[in-house]
Design brief:
The structure is a single chain. By secondary structure, this protein is mainly β. It has no helices and 24 strands. It has strands spanning 38-40, 43-49, 68-73, 78-83, 91-97, 108-112, 124-129, 134-141, 148-156, 171-173, 176-182, 199-205, 210-215, 223-228, 240-244, 254-259, 264-271, 279-286, 301-303, 332-334, 340-345, 355-358, 370-374, 383-388. It has a 5-stranded mixed β-sheet with strand order 1-3-8-5-6, with no helix packed on it. The radius of gyration is 31 Å and the shape is elongated. The protein starts with 37 loop residues before the first strand and ends with a strand. The relative contact order is 0.12.
Length: 391
């Protein structure tokens, strides 16, 4: 029998992985990169999915994880609401001025994580916009989360930023109680000494010398507060009297400082960070005796709503434009806490009075500022009812 030889040969051959017909690999969204931001206008429940997205961008707010981009062109001049409510995952949202890639830190307008409510894991923010202007929207997830979601953008031309959104347009106030504050549509501007979040401004004239307490207790959002001993815009760090974030274990703010009679102070109200804002109340209370030196227009005493506030013109002198009154006079600056009608009454006074009301608080008012004069309304005393605007 012939012998048999067995030979084992090892062959190295490529192995092809067969993919079933019709199957495809998961693709990233078309707007995965900032340079490919998808143009949008006002939309309702526009579907998106970040599941297969990657991260790119400046990492200013959404620091890591999948993100996608939209370039929004505002349809109105007013305020826009950008919302991810209804999405299936814990989202984060940032909006920048302009659609350039990549945006710088100074381009950041607003951010949001949890729609100003830690129980809501989706994002929503409100901001002022200008018709035709472009805004870059970055959508991502908390700690890199991803998934399908919906984007809604609505523009309301009837809404606008608060009138005191800018430092130069600070609202004049005296002592007030629960004056409404709203930073939802505010933007940030200012020195950024304490915070750099959306802010509004107030200008307070002290009616005397002594402690003044500025409080945001009772507000609905996590507030921050700064007071400056300078009313020029912008104050610098040397002007800062104090900052406060959380007063007495609350998420709201309060500062007490020593004021000088007749001196003006600048008050900055804002959120804890770019992610916080909303509606609140401002209370300013002083602990010094009532001012009696409002004989001159330039020393007008700040007041809010008052009842039977005593005054005495016995030793007063006359100053002013002489449009209605030319007799010894006193001056007050009234800041209304609501929009509607206000009644200024001297009924119950001991002498034959006169009263005049002017728009604004400039000394001296002009004829065009005059809202009304009255001599005899209730017997020999005076009273006027005028239309007013809150703040």
């Amino acid at each position: 029998m012939k012998g048999l030889r067995l030979e084992f040969i090892s062959l190295c051959v490529p192995i092809a992985l067969l993919v079933p017909i019709g199957a495809t690999s998961a693709a990233a969204p078309s707007n995965d990169n900032c340079m490919n931001a998808r143009p949008v206008g006002d939309v309702t429940d526009l579907a998106f999915d970040t599941t297969n997205a990657t991260f790119d961008g400046p990492g200013i707010f959404i620091l890591e994880g999948p993100n996608i981009w939209y370039c929004y062109t505002a349809s109105c001049t007013g305020c826009a609401t950008i919302s991810l409510l209804g999405s299936s995952f814990d989202t984060k949202l940032a909006v920048f001025d302009g659609c350039g890639c990549y945006p710088a830190a100074g381009d950041l307008i607003k951010v949001n994580d949890d729609a100003d409510n830690p129980l809501v894991k989706q994002s929503q923010l409100m901001m002022p916009v200008t018709a035709g202007h472009k805004y870059l929207i970055e959508i991502g997830g908390f700690q890199g989360r991803s998934g399908p979601g919906t984007l809604t953008i609505e523009c309301d031309g009837n809404m606008s930023p608060p009138p005191n959104d800018d430092c130069a347009r600070a609202t004049f106030v005296g002592d007030v109680t629960d004056l409404p504050v709203d930073t939802q549509y505010a933007t940030f501007e200012g020195p950024g000494i304490c915070r750099s979040s959306p802010n509004v401004w107030y200008r307070y004239k002290a009616g005397g010398s002594g402690p003044v307490t500025v409080s945001l207790l009772g507000s609905e959002f996590d507030t921050a507060l700064a007071v400056y001993d300078n009313v020029s815009c912008y104050p610098n760090e040397a002007d800062l009297i104090g900052c406060n974030d959380d007063f007495d274990a609350s998420a709201q703010s309060q500062i007490t400082f020593q004021a000088l009679a007749g001196h003006d102070y600048l008050i900055e109200v804002e959120g804890y960070n770019l992610d916080t804002g909303g509606q609140g109340v401002l209370t300013i209370s002083s602990q010094f005796p009532p001012v009696t030196s409002n004989d001159d227009c330039s020393s007008a005493r700040p007041v809010g709503d008052v009842t039977d506030l005593p005054f005495d013109t016995t030793d007063a002198t006359f100053d002013g434009p002489g449009l209605c009154l030319t007799s010894p006079n006193l001056w007050y600056v009234y800041t209304p806490k609501c929009t509607g009608q206000a009644t200024v009454s001297l009924c119950g006074s001991s002498f034959d009075t006169e009263v005049a009301v002017y728009a604004g608080a400039q000394c001296y008012p002009k004829d065009s500022d005059l809202l009304g004069c009255n001599d005899d309304f209730c017997d020999l005393q005076s009273q006027l009812t005028i239309d007013v605007v809150a703040g």
